[in-house]
TrEMBL record:
Family classification: Belongs to the cytochrome c oxidase bacterial subunit 4 family.
Its membrane topology: Multi-pass membrane protein
Coarse class of the protein's main subcellular location: membrane
Record's subcellular location: Cell membrane
Organism (species): Paenibacillus odorifer
Official protein name in the record: Cytochrome C oxidase subunit IV
Keyword Transmembrane helix attributed: yes
Classification via InterPro entries: Cyt_c_oxidase_su4_prok (IPR005171), Cytochrome_c_oxidase_bac_sub4 (IPR050968)
GO BP: aerobic electron transport chain; electron transport coupled proton transport
PANTHER family, alphabetized: CYTOCHROME BO(3) UBIQUINOL OXIDASE SUBUNIT 4 (PTHR36835:SF1)
TM regions (residue ranges): 26-46, 52-72, 84-106
């Protein structure tokens, strides 16, 4: 069953979820490997500007987090708003702590 269908369930109807299949997971896995290889190649090349390498690594890390959270932890599915909000709150608190610690170290 590839579409949403209603199945009888002891007095009511139970909605079945769409089955994604392994194709999306394989594509996302390959994308994760490519992101890792790009980050590794940037550092292993040696001749790359350090600032560019750091920015590239940060961009690759953010993309990896989005891929991992969205596809492997299924946060792209319906009904996951509360966990997403809690994670965003955690990222905000962690970012605030990092910024404040850098401020205290460098400007005080």
């Amino acid at each position: 069953m590839t579409t949403d269908q209603h199945m009888p369930d002891s007095g009511g109807y139970k909605q079945r979820h769409r089955h994604e299949g392994p194709q999306k997971h394989i594509v996302v896995f390959i994308f994760s490997i490519v992101l890792t290889l790009i980050a590794f190649a940037a550092v292993a090349a040696g001749g790359v500007n350090a600032t560019f390498a750091i920015i590239l690594l940060l961009v690759m890390a953010v993309l990896q987090v989005i891929v991992q959270m969205g596809f492997w932890m299924h946060l792209k599915d319906k009904g996951h708003l509360l966990p997403i909000l809690f994670m965003l709150g955690g990222f905000f608190i962690a970012g605030t702590c990092i910024v404040m610690s850098l401020y205290w170290v460098w400007w005080n």
